[in-house]
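Reply to dn_fold:

You asked what the input looked like. This is it:
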Amino acid sequence: MYGNFLEDKAGSSLVLIRWNQITTAMAEAHRKQSLFADSKKRALKAAKEALNAVDGYIHCKGNSIADLQMLWQRAMSLSDDAGSVLLDAWGSTHEAHELLETAASQGLLHDMAEMASVSMPDVDHCMPFVSLLRIAHFQGVKAVDKALSPVLTQILVLDAIGRYQEREMKRLNLEVVQKRRSVSSIMELVGGIAHGVAKPGPASMKLVARSLNLIGSQICPAPAGCAGMLLNVSQNSSLGLVPDAKAEELWVSSTPGDLLLSKSPTSALTPCKAPMPHSAPEGPQEKLKTLSLAQNSRPKEGPVEELKVSGLHL
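and this is what came back:
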């Protein structure tokens, strides 16, 4: 179900209803296209039978003029029926395309991208804030691609059906007032949204912030007694978010995305009074194991090479 691609929050139900209206119209266009395909098949079969009968009459195989006339009239009738079904199918295709184009101009595709459901990455340990931003961006871009992929598929299929129907109408010498609508504007819109969130800029920053709000507290959960995402100042001292904090202090945020978007990032942080867990002193072997694990768990570079937090380049 398409609703699985959207985040469960206020407004997503309305977006889903609007999209379902479009998919209903597209399903009707597909149904009527199938009806035309069946009608065309029957008409071609009847025409073939009429031609075979003519061949039989020429070779004196028992067909009379009356038989030929009956078969030919049946073939012509089925051909006319196929033309009527084709015009009906063309109208449904045009209606679905027009509905999609109107919804796109009203911001439906942008709403779908902004409400795309972000899934949890395969990460089992907390990490520095900058590395977490890269993961949040990757998961966000993947969510937007997943939400817009069905739209792109429907656009391409609808365009292919329209082109086919247009060729068939020319073959049958059928004239229509409504011309086939171009899908280039909608394709450009989908591409613009996808590229906008993939490259550094306001759209990608907003996506990273929303993604971080969703997955941050699950990757770096706050200690018992505190809530939100853990932000260890000693591991993220380069951020400059809490300049007067002691290195051993723990800070948490229920909306870590505000650290990217807020003009006052410190307002999104709350000190956590829970004691920081202390580990036993490491011996030489344990230090080597820790170093090896840290190197192996270093996250790969994401599509965003540069992110800005409070005016700082991370």
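Residues 2-204 form a domain with the Glutathione S-transferase Yfyf (Class Pi); Chain A, domain 2 fold (CATH 1.20.1050).
Hope that clears it up.
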